[in-house]
Design goal:
It is a single chain. The chain contains nine helices and nine strands. By secondary structure, it is α/β, with parallel strands linked by helices. The strands form two sheets. A seven-stranded mixed β-sheet has the order 1-3-2-4-5-8-9, sandwiched between helices. Strands 6-7 form a two-stranded antiparallel ribbon.
Length: 255
Protein backbone atom coordinates (compact mmCIF):
# COMPACT_ATOMS: atom_id res chain seq x y z
CA UNK A 1 0.00 0.00 0.00
CA UNK A 2 1.39 3.44 -0.92
CA UNK A 3 2.55 5.48 2.03
CA UNK A 4 2.17 9.24 1.74
CA UNK A 5 5.30 11.29 2.37
CA UNK A 6 5.00 13.06 5.78
CA UNK A 7 3.68 16.65 5.45
CA UNK A 8 2.48 15.88 1.89
CA UNK A 9 -0.97 14.61 2.82
CA UNK A 10 -4.18 15.89 1.21
CA UNK A 11 -6.20 18.29 3.36
CA UNK A 12 -9.77 19.40 3.96
CA UNK A 13 -10.83 22.58 5.78
CA UNK A 14 -14.61 23.00 6.21
CA UNK A 15 -16.15 26.40 5.66
CA UNK A 16 -19.10 28.03 3.93
CA UNK A 17 -21.02 27.15 0.76
CA UNK A 18 -18.22 28.38 -1.50
CA UNK A 19 -15.56 25.72 -2.00
CA UNK A 20 -12.05 25.80 -3.44
CA UNK A 21 -10.56 22.66 -5.00
CA UNK A 22 -6.76 22.93 -4.95
CA UNK A 23 -4.69 20.87 -7.40
CA UNK A 24 -0.91 20.49 -7.14
CA UNK A 25 1.59 20.06 -9.94
CA UNK A 26 3.52 17.35 -11.81
CA UNK A 27 5.60 15.27 -9.33
CA UNK A 28 4.48 17.71 -6.61
CA UNK A 29 2.31 17.22 -3.53
CA UNK A 30 -0.62 18.88 -1.75
CA UNK A 31 1.92 20.59 0.52
CA UNK A 32 2.68 23.18 -2.15
CA UNK A 33 -1.00 24.19 -2.06
CA UNK A 34 -1.57 24.04 1.68
CA UNK A 35 -0.55 27.64 2.60
CA UNK A 36 -2.97 28.98 0.01
CA UNK A 37 -5.64 26.61 1.27
CA UNK A 38 -5.17 27.81 4.84
CA UNK A 39 -5.49 31.42 3.73
CA UNK A 40 -8.65 30.79 1.71
CA UNK A 41 -10.18 28.89 4.60
CA UNK A 42 -9.43 31.85 6.88
CA UNK A 43 -11.59 33.86 4.48
CA UNK A 44 -14.46 31.46 5.15
CA UNK A 45 -14.26 29.13 2.15
CA UNK A 46 -14.41 25.36 2.28
CA UNK A 47 -11.08 24.04 0.96
CA UNK A 48 -10.02 20.65 -0.36
CA UNK A 49 -6.43 19.98 -1.39
CA UNK A 50 -6.34 16.73 -3.33
CA UNK A 51 -3.47 14.31 -3.99
CA UNK A 52 -3.19 13.35 -7.64
CA UNK A 53 -2.93 9.63 -8.35
CA UNK A 54 0.62 8.33 -8.07
CA UNK A 55 1.94 11.43 -6.32
CA UNK A 56 3.34 12.10 -2.83
CA UNK A 57 4.34 8.48 -2.25
CA UNK A 58 7.09 6.98 -4.41
CA UNK A 59 7.98 7.67 -8.07
CA UNK A 60 7.28 4.02 -8.89
CA UNK A 61 3.62 4.65 -8.06
CA UNK A 62 3.50 7.45 -10.61
CA UNK A 63 4.64 5.13 -13.40
CA UNK A 64 1.39 3.21 -13.09
CA UNK A 65 -0.73 6.30 -13.71
CA UNK A 66 -1.91 8.06 -16.86
CA UNK A 67 -3.15 11.61 -17.35
CA UNK A 68 -6.72 10.35 -17.23
CA UNK A 69 -6.05 9.08 -13.70
CA UNK A 70 -4.93 12.56 -12.67
CA UNK A 71 -8.07 14.08 -14.17
CA UNK A 72 -10.14 11.49 -12.32
CA UNK A 73 -8.49 12.61 -9.06
CA UNK A 74 -9.81 16.11 -9.77
CA UNK A 75 -13.25 14.75 -10.56
CA UNK A 76 -13.32 12.79 -7.29
CA UNK A 77 -12.54 15.96 -5.35
CA UNK A 78 -15.16 17.90 -7.28
CA UNK A 79 -17.92 15.44 -6.42
CA UNK A 80 -16.87 15.36 -2.77
CA UNK A 81 -17.26 19.13 -2.63
CA UNK A 82 -20.47 19.18 -4.68
CA UNK A 83 -22.26 17.37 -1.87
CA UNK A 84 -21.37 20.23 0.48
CA UNK A 85 -21.00 23.43 -1.53
CA UNK A 86 -23.15 25.47 -3.89
CA UNK A 87 -20.15 27.07 -5.63
CA UNK A 88 -16.88 25.41 -6.61
CA UNK A 89 -13.72 27.15 -7.78
CA UNK A 90 -10.80 25.16 -9.21
CA UNK A 91 -7.32 26.38 -8.31
CA UNK A 92 -4.35 24.60 -9.89
CA UNK A 93 -0.58 25.03 -9.92
CA UNK A 94 1.52 24.13 -12.96
CA UNK A 95 0.13 20.82 -14.29
CA UNK A 96 -2.63 21.27 -11.70
CA UNK A 97 -3.62 24.38 -13.63
CA UNK A 98 -3.75 22.38 -16.86
CA UNK A 99 -5.97 19.79 -15.20
CA UNK A 100 -8.19 22.53 -13.77
CA UNK A 101 -8.67 24.20 -17.15
CA UNK A 102 -9.41 20.91 -18.89
CA UNK A 103 -11.85 19.95 -16.14
CA UNK A 104 -13.56 23.35 -16.37
CA UNK A 105 -14.27 22.65 -20.06
CA UNK A 106 -16.23 19.54 -19.08
CA UNK A 107 -17.93 20.31 -15.77
CA UNK A 108 -19.94 23.15 -14.28
CA UNK A 109 -17.57 25.21 -12.14
CA UNK A 110 -17.94 28.78 -10.95
CA UNK A 111 -14.42 29.82 -11.79
CA UNK A 112 -10.89 28.56 -12.39
CA UNK A 113 -7.51 29.91 -11.28
CA UNK A 114 -4.50 28.52 -13.19
CA UNK A 115 -1.05 29.38 -11.82
CA UNK A 116 2.34 28.79 -13.51
CA UNK A 117 0.51 26.66 -16.05
CA UNK A 118 2.17 25.22 -19.17
CA UNK A 119 0.49 25.63 -22.54
CA UNK A 120 2.86 23.10 -24.09
CA UNK A 121 6.17 21.40 -23.39
CA UNK A 122 9.35 22.88 -24.88
CA UNK A 123 9.89 22.01 -28.53
CA UNK A 124 12.02 18.87 -28.49
CA UNK A 125 11.94 16.14 -31.18
CA UNK A 126 12.61 13.51 -28.51
CA UNK A 127 9.07 14.03 -27.20
CA UNK A 128 7.80 12.02 -30.16
CA UNK A 129 9.70 8.99 -28.87
CA UNK A 130 9.57 9.58 -25.14
CA UNK A 131 7.67 6.35 -24.39
CA UNK A 132 10.46 4.36 -26.04
CA UNK A 133 13.18 6.50 -24.49
CA UNK A 134 11.76 5.63 -21.08
CA UNK A 135 13.17 2.11 -21.45
CA UNK A 136 16.67 3.55 -21.96
CA UNK A 137 16.48 6.48 -19.56
CA UNK A 138 13.65 5.96 -17.05
CA UNK A 139 14.41 9.15 -15.12
CA UNK A 140 14.94 12.77 -16.21
CA UNK A 141 16.81 14.99 -13.74
CA UNK A 142 15.16 18.22 -12.72
CA UNK A 143 16.82 21.48 -13.74
CA UNK A 144 18.08 24.18 -11.45
CA UNK A 145 15.24 25.47 -9.25
CA UNK A 146 14.17 29.09 -9.58
CA UNK A 147 13.14 29.67 -5.96
CA UNK A 148 13.17 33.28 -4.82
CA UNK A 149 12.50 32.26 -1.19
CA UNK A 150 15.25 29.88 0.06
CA UNK A 151 13.32 29.06 3.23
CA UNK A 152 10.31 27.88 1.22
CA UNK A 153 12.62 25.84 -0.99
CA UNK A 154 14.00 23.96 2.03
CA UNK A 155 10.53 22.75 3.02
CA UNK A 156 9.37 21.83 -0.47
CA UNK A 157 8.40 18.19 -1.06
CA UNK A 158 8.31 16.57 -4.49
CA UNK A 159 9.80 13.64 -6.36
CA UNK A 160 13.54 14.23 -6.99
CA UNK A 161 13.26 13.51 -10.73
CA UNK A 162 10.73 13.26 -13.55
CA UNK A 163 9.69 9.70 -14.48
CA UNK A 164 10.32 9.70 -18.23
CA UNK A 165 7.23 7.61 -18.99
CA UNK A 166 5.02 10.23 -17.36
CA UNK A 167 6.41 13.05 -19.46
CA UNK A 168 4.52 11.45 -22.33
CA UNK A 169 1.37 11.63 -20.21
CA UNK A 170 1.98 15.29 -19.46
CA UNK A 171 2.51 15.96 -23.17
CA UNK A 172 -0.79 14.27 -24.02
CA UNK A 173 -2.61 16.09 -21.21
CA UNK A 174 -1.44 19.46 -22.51
CA UNK A 175 -2.67 18.54 -25.99
CA UNK A 176 -6.11 17.82 -24.53
CA UNK A 177 -6.05 21.09 -22.59
CA UNK A 178 -5.11 23.17 -25.63
CA UNK A 179 -8.02 21.71 -27.60
CA UNK A 180 -10.38 22.39 -24.68
CA UNK A 181 -9.41 26.00 -23.89
CA UNK A 182 -11.96 27.59 -26.28
CA UNK A 183 -14.68 25.59 -24.49
CA UNK A 184 -13.78 26.98 -21.06
CA UNK A 185 -16.56 29.48 -20.35
CA UNK A 186 -16.16 29.90 -16.59
CA UNK A 187 -14.47 33.06 -15.30
CA UNK A 188 -10.72 32.54 -15.27
CA UNK A 189 -7.72 34.04 -13.52
CA UNK A 190 -4.34 33.17 -15.06
CA UNK A 191 -1.35 33.83 -12.79
CA UNK A 192 2.29 33.62 -13.81
CA UNK A 193 5.69 34.75 -12.56
CA UNK A 194 7.84 36.64 -15.02
CA UNK A 195 10.91 34.90 -13.55
CA UNK A 196 9.48 31.40 -14.00
CA UNK A 197 12.30 29.39 -15.59
CA UNK A 198 10.46 26.07 -15.66
CA UNK A 199 7.39 27.34 -17.54
CA UNK A 200 8.25 30.52 -19.49
CA UNK A 201 5.76 33.41 -19.23
CA UNK A 202 4.72 33.07 -22.88
CA UNK A 203 2.72 30.01 -21.81
CA UNK A 204 0.38 32.22 -19.76
CA UNK A 205 -0.22 34.56 -22.68
CA UNK A 206 -1.11 31.67 -24.98
CA UNK A 207 -3.54 30.21 -22.45
CA UNK A 208 -5.16 33.59 -21.84
CA UNK A 209 -5.62 34.22 -25.56
CA UNK A 210 -7.11 30.77 -26.24
CA UNK A 211 -9.61 30.79 -23.37
CA UNK A 212 -13.28 30.99 -24.29
CA UNK A 213 -14.11 32.79 -21.03
CA UNK A 214 -15.64 36.20 -21.46
CA UNK A 215 -14.47 37.15 -17.99
CA UNK A 216 -10.74 36.50 -17.73
CA UNK A 217 -7.73 38.15 -16.15
CA UNK A 218 -3.97 37.74 -16.42
CA UNK A 219 -1.98 38.52 -13.27
CA UNK A 220 1.81 38.86 -13.41
CA UNK A 221 4.05 38.32 -10.39
CA UNK A 222 7.40 40.08 -10.60
CA UNK A 223 9.39 38.57 -7.72
CA UNK A 224 8.44 34.89 -7.73
CA UNK A 225 9.63 31.63 -9.22
CA UNK A 226 7.57 28.71 -10.47
CA UNK A 227 5.97 27.59 -7.17
CA UNK A 228 4.11 30.88 -6.74
CA UNK A 229 1.99 29.53 -3.87
CA UNK A 230 5.06 29.52 -1.60
CA UNK A 231 7.08 32.40 -3.01
CA UNK A 232 7.57 36.00 -1.68
CA UNK A 233 4.47 37.36 -3.46
CA UNK A 234 2.22 34.61 -2.14
CA UNK A 235 0.07 36.98 -0.07
CA UNK A 236 -0.64 39.09 -3.14
CA UNK A 237 -1.58 35.89 -4.97
CA UNK A 238 -3.87 34.70 -2.16
CA UNK A 239 -5.60 38.07 -1.98
CA UNK A 240 -6.05 38.14 -5.76
CA UNK A 241 -7.65 34.69 -5.60
CA UNK A 242 -9.97 35.85 -2.82
CA UNK A 243 -10.98 38.94 -4.79
CA UNK A 244 -11.57 36.85 -7.91
CA UNK A 245 -13.84 34.47 -6.01
CA UNK A 246 -15.75 37.31 -4.36
CA UNK A 247 -16.20 39.09 -7.68
CA UNK A 248 -17.47 36.05 -9.52
CA UNK A 249 -19.84 34.66 -6.91
CA UNK A 250 -23.35 34.18 -8.23
CA UNK A 251 -25.63 36.30 -5.99
CA UNK A 252 -28.63 34.06 -6.59
CA UNK A 253 -26.78 31.23 -4.83
CA UNK A 254 -25.95 33.18 -1.71
CA UNK A 255 -27.27 31.54 1.45
Amino acid sequence: MPRIIPTAEPFFFPGDQTACLLVHGFTGTPKEMRPMGEYLNSRGYTVLGIRLAGHATHPQDMLRTRWTDWLTSVEDGYHLLRSHAKRIFLIGLSMGGSLSLLFASQFDVDGVIAMSTPYSLPDDPRLNYVKWLAFIKPQIPKGEPDWQDPQAAEGHVSYPFYPTRNIAELRDLLGEMRAALPRVMAPALIVHARQDKGVPPLNAEKIYTALGSQEKQLLWLEKSGHIVTREPERLRLYQAADHFIQRTRKPSYES
